[in-house]
Structures are given as structure tokens and as C-alpha cells.
Amino acid sequence: MRSSQYLLSTIKETPADAEVISHKLMLRAGMIRRVASGMYTYLPTGVRVLRKVEQIVREEMNKAGAIEVLMPMVQPAELWQESGRWDKMDAELLRFKDRHTRDFVLGPTHEEVITDLVRREITSYKQLPLNLYQIQTKFRDERRPRFGVMRAREFLMKDAYSFHLSQDSLQQTYNAMYQAYCNIFSRLGLDFRPVLADTGAIGGSMSHEFHVLAASGEDAIAFSDESDYAANIEMAEALAPQGERAAAKQDLAEVATPNAKTVADVATLLQQDMALVSKTLIVYAAKADDKAPQTLVALVLRGDHELNEIKAEKLPQVQSPLVFASEEEIRAAISAGPGSLGPVGMPIPVIVDRSAAHLSDFICGANKDGYHLTGVNWDRDIKDYSVADLRNIVEGDASPCGKGKLVVKRGIEVGHIFQLGERYSQALKAGVLNEDGKHQIMTMGCYGVGVSRIIAAAIEQNHDENGIIWPDAIAPFQIALIPMNMHKSVRIEEATVRLYNELTAAGFEVLFDDRKERPGVMFADMELMGIPHSIVVGERNLDNLQVEYKNRRSGEKEMLDISAVVEAMAHKLAK
Amino acid sequence: MRSSQYLLSTIKETPADAEVISHKLMLRAGMIRRVASGMYTYLPTGVRVLRKVEQIVREEMNKAGAIEVLMPMVQPAELWQESGRWDKMDAELLRFKDRHTRDFVLGPTHEEVITDLVRREITSYKQLPLNLYQIQTKFRDERRPRFGVMRAREFLMKDAYSFHLSQDSLQQTYNAMYQAYCNIFSRLGLDFRPVLADTGAIGGSMSHEFHVLAASGEDAIAFSDESDYAANIEMAEALAPQGERAAAKQDLAEVATPNAKTVADVATLLQQDMALVSKTLIVYAAKADDKAPQTLVALVLRGDHELNEIKAEKLPQVQSPLVFASEEEIRAAISAGPGSLGPVGMPIPVIVDRSAAHLSDFICGANKDGYHLTGVNWDRDIKDYSVADLRNIVEGDASPCGKGKLVVKRGIEVGHIFQLGERYSQALKAGVLNEDGKHQIMTMGCYGVGVSRIIAAAIEQNHDENGIIWPDAIAPFQIALIPMNMHKSVRIEEATVRLYNELTAAGFEVLFDDRKERPGVMFADMELMGIPHSIVVGERNLDNLQVEYKNRRSGEKEMLDISAVVEAMAHKLAK
Questions:
Q1: Domain check: are A431 and A500 in the same one?
Q2: Does residue B177 sit in the same domain as residue B56?
Q3: How far apart are CA A563 and CA A515, in angstroms?
Q4: What does pTM read for this prediction?
Q5: Hey, are the CB atoms on B33 and A75 less than 8 Å from each other?
Q6: Per its UniProt entry, what is the enzyme's top EC class, as one word (chains A, B) (predicted)?
Q7: Segments forming the whole domain that contains residue B96
Q8: DSSP class per residue in A424-464
Q9: Does the beta carbon of A46 lie under 8 angstroms from any beta carbon of chain B?
Q10: Is B359 found in the same domain as B444?
């Protein structure tokens, strides 16, 4: 492709409205333009990358035995009413009426449509398992779209749905998808991690997220420094500290702590480490039935630890989703305010985090405003309590896999695989005749890849101050061919055109920058666009029948004989 | 692909709700399923065909110098308000509000979005011409969607838009697109015709439709039997009959024609050919200004010819769009009813079709209820009239190209190229600095291909009583590999698996029907799906180390040595 016949659309200035680096660089490199909030046109450079990502995803899905279908973006409300999500989903589900005032939605996902299809098409266990996927445009009416295509309203996804009659069969397809996703992200050339994920409110039994690692990532991921263990920080188990709890040495004592509102205040006042000050949080207890009055539960953690709300709301004693009691509710139950609570003499059930339960001679609120207790010891001073994993892990915690310590890194979620179970198949009565000739509801898995989001994540991970650094596999062009002052030198032009013809004939994707621009402008644009390999044709090197090669990522330069360029590039791009 | 690992979803019964053959066969062959009125899921077989069509279109667009972009399906109302189409378009334009109650549309086409993009990105004549295309999902809220994907609400289109500063430049790109479209439809293996089309109400100067010929086509197309001339029937010029008009022989005479309401009645009553009876239609005249009172015009045609409304409304004397006068309006102006009108003594302007103007001694209404005139002659009996091309051509008319006679065939429109001019660029003020440094509005072309519609059109053209007959280029699979009773014979299974591995290794797309089905069921399914080449592996032929080849289109069978199958298929598929 010659630049003069292409739409480069690079921008020098950093766009004011872009917050993250990938958004800025996608705008500056001429990949996308905003049409409306959260909606983008992909310019030619953006489309080239998008199609490459799409193709790699398609190939690996096919290889893993998934079969491609294509469902409509507009979906009838009836299916969403049948699954129950018409009422459950908030305004993110964009609803509208057609000319006959029938209700429709713009599909943010396709569980309903695919389950409806499969219940009509599949009648026998002999046709299972089945794994259907599509690469298709989705719409999610985000309240606050941002970060460019990272959190857009309209976006391209690969979504797959599998159908089974047994958990074993589901697990097999799940494993195949896990492997396919590893293959996809490896082929894309990205540093990624599969991460154990929370299955959330949907239920389901098993879930992994695939994260592209990047310092700017939204999500925190806990890794073992000695094994493959990786989990979403919400999911990572905090083990109980090793060894026996130290024996009690101090007596229980009450101290006045006026004006000490926080754990930090108390620690400072008493000149103790925050780890020795416990904190007590009061939340709604789970109700036995809807009509029972609301009761409360106390959660106790070390002062230097953070409550993990997802862990807490999974406890049978605690209401899900988690609700914190108000100050009024707390005072009514405990007769002290939030700053002075503690497990000693607590009139409501007490659940203690594993690490807090390992403390001895610790400090807690006295359940009396303005007072704390010191020298507190479990079992001696508090008899009735239970222990659970309640906290977020922190760096240095022992890895729950048993090997190494946890390290926290940041990631961008680009894929998600999920054992759905019967959530949708039950609601839509999607079953088949099993081997015994009986009607049986199918069990399902679903597997998503954010195709357009991958582009942003790849840039967050691969860029420098000059612009994007594409992995070879998804670069818009493989090679930038840059002649120096071609419009003044017939010799340069002839040599460059010859190289261009040779390289394209050999199957390389070359962007030949034939614009009448200063070399500096061309170098800057090619670097900004992140083209991984550059070849510069200049007068002086031409005297030696050579051109200069530059690697975008390493910055390394080398001289190549003009006659050996095609071979050299084949070698570099095969790597 | 093995059938057992695929989703065949063929149906024996003809679906009741499908009206046209392509819709029936797409359902029966397991290509599509209805999700809602005018919305379909493409099953795996449908997707395979869709992706092939898409890829051929993409390759030919790229080859012709167009550059791929991707615009959102959801578009902000502001752009449609700016172009004026927000108000002009009826309910086909699906409008909705997002969560912030801002107005949006589901894009049925992208002139507004692309013109907005180009006015922001392109500033100088040096960046022109520019031809941008996308392959993207569109939504048109048809009042009555039907014929499956032929007239769906959600459909896949290739739409391209070109930008220029001169008519010459537009014409060049238009010609390139004309050629690209010929290449596309040739590669798809379809019998098609580019057809001169009406530019309609949008204005614009030049337009061609590309039609796939099929007896079931919606549109009538006029061809010359001796040249390349082809035009939409609305566009085909009806030439004046050759030679001098015959001299008048009869005297003008009035005859009573009571109860003769139609041309046919009059011809029967007077025992004359309908071609000798003229008919007179009264329509609204064009007004000089909005406040002038409405006046009328008489259009005179031969009784055996049909008025072409598009030709009529293009005349400067006639109001556009065409409005026929009511009986009251006619009686007020002429004092006779519609059944008794004629040009003799007509008090309003008379425009005569070229063929009617060539009549002598003809018959017309007497402008007096229940009476006609015979022996009527132009110039002698009617002095004041003008002549124009007013009628639809009929088979046998001389071709307007000067060569041969016109033949009428039916076609399905699958492509449309159009010189838009400044319709959108003017409304959106999309201009650049020209060579003189002055701001100049760009002129535009647009070029559409109905990607999903092509599939239906291809089937309308290529099918028989057993199902679809795919052209090689867009067949879901190239080869059907059918073992006879494989599940009872290890020898058959081994031979078939070996062939399957050889054929797929050689790059062929093979559907290996490994189902436990009777041979008859497998043959019927493979024929229904239209797979162009079949190879049947049977016990008896295997004794001679042979398999049977069958061509889906010709029905011809031949025996192939097992060792020569790959070579034979390479030969057949290279054709």
C-alpha cells in the first residue's frame, strides 16, 4: 500500500478527551474516530488490525471444534422476557420498539438467541456436545463509555456457547476453550494470564478470565511467584497464617481513645502497628425467609487488611448482595458507633478473618464510644465466633496453591470462559432426549473474547513514548518502506519501487511511504503507527547497495544488502 | 468437516411460511433460521457461504483501490438531521433513544457518517480521490419483510463512498467500481447484467444496477439481442417508429360507443386492433410557482402500450411525482369522463408518445361521453401537441443502442453504483481546499453490494428440484464425501478416512458425511445443500480401487481411481 493511496490520518497533538494511552494512540495513529459517545468508526489502519485479530480468533475457534454461526444484533424482547433478563437488566440493555411497536433489544450478548436456536434444532443427545460461536457486533448502553474502544458501547465480540448433557462433557469443552484462548493470545503476541475468576451472581461453577498484563490495567490479579497460579484478586484465597497462634501474655484492659475514629488513629494513639488493631464491620445477616426481621453480623479483620466483599457475601450467614448496616442500625443493636466496635461482648454473631483470628494480645473497639480494649485474646475473651477467609490478599501472602508468595499485577480482561450450567437452558426449557429416551435440560458453557478490546489492551501493553509497538501478528502493516527525499531523486525512487514490488510479491504487507514529506515526519508516523519493521532507503547507503533496517521494538538498526532484503525480512517475520 | 461434528440442520419438509424458492431452500438446507420477522440467524452452512461472498467482495474492492473502514451500526440523529433525512425518511429508518434519551438510528446506510468523517479528515485536494468501503450489518425496518434474506430487516452490505473534486475524477472511480462489480459477480459464478438505472428522486447523474438474472426476479430488464445494451425497464428508451407516418386516408367521423369503457371495449366494438385505438391519460401539470392554480396535461399513448410514469414525470410540463387527475377534475376541465377522452379539441396541453404520434387514421375518444372518433390524423385534426417518449418498452422494440431488438428478462438487484454528486457533501458542507486554495464542496459516488442478498439471488438462479446448486466459488463445501454403510464396513471407513485426509491436506473443503444414515438420506442432504462435487465410496467400486464422482450441476457421474481423486478434484475445481 502506498501512503498516497491510503488514509493515514495520523495526528501530532495528543487528543484532549482521551484518558488512557491506548485511546490516545488509536486516535493519533489514525485507527479510530469518535462518531458518538462510545461509538467509533475504524479507519483503515484500525480495520487492518481488527481483521487480523478476528481471523486469529476464528482460526483457533475452528481448530478447537467450535462452529461459526451469525446471530442478529437486533433481538426480540420475548426471548429476554422468557429468560427473565428483560426485567433484571438495567439500562445497559438498550430497548426499543420497531415500526409495529413491538419490543426489541440491541444484543449485548446472545445467550437467549442461541439457547432458543438450539432448543429448536437439537433434539437428541447424539447431536451433543455442540459449541457454536460468532464474531459479531454488540451494543451495551454503558452509563459512562470511556477509554475509547476499551469500554465502548458498540464493540466487536467473539462469543461462543456450548451445550452438553453432562458436567464431564462441559468440562471437556471448557478445557478445549481454555487451550484455544491460550493459543489465541499467544498467537496475538501478547503477554497474558488465565486467571481464576469469580462466577458472580449468575451462579455457574467455574470461570476463568484472560488478562493482558499492563500497568494501566483496570483489574488486579494475584500471581504466585513460583507457580502458574493466577486469580482475580476477588477470588484469590487468603490462607490462614502458618503456625500456632501465640499464647496470650497481656491482660484485657480498657483504654480511652477519644477522637480516634479510624484504625490508623488508634494505632498512632496507642503506638502500635495497624496489624495489631482489629476492625469490625457490621453487615446485614442472611434471612431464613423474606418475612424474618433483618438481623446483623459482625465481620472482624486486621486493621491493615481490606474486606473482600465478594468473599463476605458468599458466606451463608451474610446477605448477598452485601449491605452495610447504617450507624442507626448499629447503635440500635450494639449501643456504640462504628469507630468503637469490637468482638468482645458483641451481641450479634461474629465472623473473623483467618489472619485476624491468628492475632493475640490485639486491640479492638470496646463497644462503648471513645474506648478500646487492649490485650484482647480469642477464646479467652471471645468465646463465640467463627473463622472465614474475609479479606483481599496482599503482596507477599502465601500463594493458595501452596507454592511461593503472591504478587499482584494489573491486567485488562480480554477473554472470559464460564461454565453457565442450566441458567438459560432451564429458563428456556432447552432439553433433548438423553440416552434413556428421557427429556433432559442441557448444561451450557459460554466463552467470550473482546475482539475490539484486544486492540486497546495490546496497545496498553506495547507502546513507548513514540507510539504503538505492534506484535508482528496484528500489525496493520508488517514493514514500513521509507525512502529519503524520493521526490528529488530518481535513483531513490527506482530502488524503493523495486524493493516495494519485491516485498509485496513475496507476500509481505508493506506500507510504502511515498508522501512528499520530510524524512522526520515519515519516521514519526511509522513509529506512531507501530509498524514493527522499517526499511529506509537513502542516498549514501544506496552507494553501497544497502538499505537501513530498524526494529520498532528493540530500536536496533542494521544494514542490509538490497539484494538480501526479502530474505532478511522473511527471517525476521518468521520468528 | 465431519457431519457428526457439524450442525447440518437440513429439513425434509418445505417450510410453510416461505414464499420463494431461495427462502425455502435456505431453510431446508440448514442455512438460516428466523429469529423475528426479517431477522435471521445464519447457521454454519449459511455463514460459510456468507464469508466466501464477503471475501470475494473485499478482495475485488481492495484490488480496485478502495480502502476498508468500519462504521458503527448505531448512528447519532444529529447527522441525519443535518442531511435532512431525519425528517424525510419514513418508518424504515428505525429511530430510538439511548439511556440519556438522546436520539439515534440503526443505520440503513452510511452516507451521513462517512461524509462527516471525510469532512473532518480530508482537508486538501491532494488527498483526493478517496474511496472508502465497509462490509457491515445494516438495519432497515421494512414494513413487510419477506423472501428470507432477500428482503430482510437486518442484512449484510458492502457499501462504498467516493469523494472527488471533479466529475472526471468521479467518473474514473465510477468506472473502476463498475469493473470491480463485474469482477465480483463473475468470480461469484453468477449470470448477471449491469443495467442502466433510474437515478430517481435523489438526483445524481449516472447509475447502474447489477442484476442476477433469474426467472423469479422482481425487476424487469430490457436487453438488446445484438449488443451489450441493458437497462432497467423504467429507463429503456422507446424509439420513434422508423419511416414516415402513413398519409391520412379516412375522414374524421364520430361513432357512438355506448358502454365501451376501455380501449379493449372500443377495439372490439369497432373491430380494430388495440394498437389503432389511442388512450388519453390526464395528469397534473407542473406549476410555475407554488401559488399557481393546478392545471392539467393530457398524455396520449397507443392502446396497446403502457405509460411509463418515470418517463412522464421527468417531462418539464408534468408535475413530479406524477399525480393522476380525479374524474371530477377531468370533467371540470374537459366535460367528458375518463373513458371518452381524446386529443381532438382537447382544451389542455397534449403530449403524445412517439409511437402514438406515428399513427394515422386512428381512433380516440370524442371528449363526449359515449362517443369516439375514427379516421383521426395528427396535424390535420390536432394541430397543437408535442411528442415525447412516454411508454414502457415491449419485447421486439428496436434497441435504443441502434443494434438489435429488445428482449425483456427478469433480474434480482444485488448491486448498485451511483453518482451522488453533492447531495450529501453540500448538506454537510464537506469540502476541501482545491488547487487554487479555495474551499470547494466535494462530489461523491456511492456503491453498494447486498452481500446477504447475493446468497438468495444465487440460489434463485442456481437450483433444481433437489435443492441448491452452488457455483464452486461460494459453495459451503467444495466436495461431499459420502461413504456407503461405513458403520458396517471397516474397509469403507478406512478408505473414506484416507480420502478425507488426503483431500483436506490438499486444501479442499470437504464435508465427510459420517452419519449413521442410509445412503439415500445422505445423497439427498448433500444435493439439497448444493455441494458441487460428490465422491461416493462403495463396496463394489472399492474392489476395483475406484470411487464414484458426481457433478451436482450436470448430474454426470464418472469413476475415479482412488489414487487419482485429489488430482481429478484439483482439475475440476480449477475450471
A1: no
A2: yes
A3: 25
A4: 0.88
A5: no
A6: ligase
A7: 3-208+414-459
A8: HHHHTT-EEE-TTS-EEE-EEEEEEEEHHHHHHHHHHHSEE
A9: yes
A10: no
